[in-house]
Amino acid sequence: MKRLSDLAIDHPRVVIVSTIIVLMMAGFAALLTPVQRSPAITKAVVVVAIPYPDSQPSEAENEIARKVEDALTQLEDVDFLVSTSLRGSSVTQVVFLDGVDSAEARRTVKDLVDRIRNELPAGREVQPRVDDVDFEGMPLLLVNITPPPGFDDRALKTFADDVLEELETVPGVSNIQLFGGKEREIHVNVNPDLMTESGVSLAEMRQALFDFHAEVPAGEFSQGSFDRSIRNETKLRGVDDIREAIVSSNAGRVIRVKDVARVIDTHRKVTTMSEFDGGAGAVLIVNKEADINTLGAARAVKAKVAELQEQHPDFQFATTRDASEEIWVMFRVLGASAVFGAMLVLVILAWTMGLRISLLVLLAIPFSMAVGLVFLFATGVPVSNMVVFAFILVLGMVVDGAIIVAENIHRHIERGEDPVDAAKIGIHEVGLPVIAADLTTVAAFLPMLLVPGIMGDFMGVMPKVVTVSLLGSILVDHFIIPTIAARCFRRREPKSDESQSFTALASGGSATAAKARIRPSVGPFTRLYAAGLRAALANRVMVIVWCLIGCWGAQVLIMQLGFNFFPASDRGQFIVRYELPLGYTCAETLAAAEVITEPLRDWEDTGVLLHYVTSVGYAGGISMRVDDDPASGPEFGQVQVELVPPMDRSIGVQEVIQYLRENIKPVPGMKFSVEEVEDGPPGGGGGDGRPPGQKNQQQGEGGPPIPRPR
């Protein structure tokens, strides 16, 4: 390594050109490396969800959960299996060991569940649904559509379907789920007495409608040099066609649908409802594809939404839970921390060692990060919050080695040595210790690569970034800093050996008596350190005793403080989940949300509240995390609240949450919970029988009754 450092100092152009090439490659990588909010999770997790309408948790556990668990005991390579029995459904989550393919795991689980389908309770809605958890297919953003006043709900559904088709053409969009609106459905309500009188059965009615609503071949004919095929199109085009459809014809008597039934143009049973900022509308949940640039995909979707807004000015389009906004907030917070840290290092070094040497030391930061970015692009690792955090973590580490090298070179220059010789001698003296220090840090981080499971996928990027960045800092310390120092510093008048001055201070004398100065004079901090060192050397036993007391005290404090791997952070998002007694409809559950949104609207005038979305019924598509409560049904609802970014408000999210907990007046029988959206990797589900809304659960006693629509 010494010979390589000498060659670099003797050939500065090669070093400078190589440095410029690395920085250019880093700029190229920064533009093309995908950006995601969190690292990719490759863990195979399969969820078996089986609805059991009107059942109690104990019934769902005995009739479904236990049978599913018994069937899944044949699985191999399973880490753990957990079931959650709720009112109206049973959910079993199977977490496999590392290395298991998600698609293959899903097929195996589905085959085993299909074998026991006949053992499950009878019912059209009791149909198992087996899905593998796509950690990358999380919502990209929510598109909220607010129609003009008086707009028909069925027309809103049709319009939202058209918008859905438009958004699905955006690159990076995997699928879109639609909530809200009413889907058109035509009901044929038969009259049993008229059917009996006419001699028509329900099967004949169904078959007649099926035959009329068909397109069948009717032969072909030849004409000249070409052949034509004929098709009989008798598809029903409206309510009148259904009414006039012939059910039977006997002895000249024609029985039509209108003779035995009423045909009504209505809508399907409402299973989901949603509101945006308290107004009726539709919500489109845009899910992203795996391994894409989340930032770019979100921008493309928002550009398409802006285009649709121009085409349909009567409708109001808005985006919430935007992943790109969360990423920008992440970069703003973490980026500000990085800039503040770099400026702090610059100020401290400029104050203690001079501006020129502080700028020389700061070269380690951009070059080390440049090496890290090139590594991310080459290995296909996207930029995420853990990557940015790792860069900030390694910020002080790369500066440590640069300070040692630059200070030692500067010391030799102050002794009057030629800058080239000072650079060579300086790096020779401290080069090996600097490498050893960096490799020691690398050795401390590399075991994190052995962490299994979801946590391993989430945390595994940190040791990679830290290791590569430290290797980049070694290049800076041994090649770039010595080369630039040899060319930027001038030869100075020799100074007396600073060891004379330090010896005088250590013995209690004066630096002036030694006729030497240390860059440029012995300051108060050096004198304070020398005094402390004299006291420590004179009382060695006390120093050891105090060290042991400090270690014991640290152990006691650790046990008292507790453990929290991912502390809560203010993302400006939280969810209010609520549940009503069994038997309430979606409309009634949506009306009950007023007791939640009323105190929430108190924050509108403060500028803290950005948007809130109320959803009722099946809300699995809007779930925030894998371990969210899987409860679904018309009596379940949730209000998703989004505040302005943390940097743009002085009120914390916990203050808003506490206000809601104190001011929400639940209606009789209503349970609710307020949960902040958490950072960190997704976790597993709860245990058997976990009741919905277990956090901050409250039972309404004296609130207003729920208005039932007539």
Index terms:
710 residues, alpha+beta, seven-stranded antiparallel sheet, four-stranded antiparallel sheet, disordered C terminus
Explain how this protein is built.
The chain has 710 residues and is α+β, with helices and mostly antiparallel strands. It has 23 helices and 21 strands. It has a 7-stranded antiparallel β-sheet with strand order 14-13-18-19-17-20-21, with helices on one face. Strands 2-3-1-4 form a 4-stranded antiparallel β-sheet, covered by helices on one side. Strand 2 and strand 3 (89-96) form a beta hairpin. It is elongated, with a radius of gyration of 35 Å. The N and C termini lie far apart (85 Å). Residues 513-520, 619-630 and 684-710 have low confidence and may be disordered.
Layout of strands and helices, then pairs:
Layout: H1 2-10, H2 12-32, E1 45-51, H3 57-71, E2 78-86, E3 89-96, H4 102-115, E4 129-132, E5 139-146, H5 153-167, E6 173-179, E7 184-190, H6 192-198, H7 202-212, E8 215-223, E9 226-233, H8 239-244, E10 246-250, E11 253-256, H9 257-260, E12 261-267, E13 272-276, E14 279-280, E15 282-288, H10 294-311, E16 316-320, H11 323-353, H12 355-362, H13 364-379, H14 385-414, H15 419-445, H16 453-459, H17 461-488, H18 498-506, H19 524-538, H20 540-561, E17 573-579, H21 586-592, H22 594-600, E18 609-617, E19 636-643, H23 653-663, E20 671-676, E21 698-699
Antiparallel strand pairs: 1-3, 1-4, 2-3, 5-15, 5-16, 6-15, 7-12, 8-9, 10-11, 13-14, 13-18, 17-19, 17-20, 18-19, 20-21
Helix pairs in contact: 1-15, 1-17, 2-13, 2-17, 11-12, 11-14, 12-14, 13-14, 13-17, 14-15, 14-17, 15-17
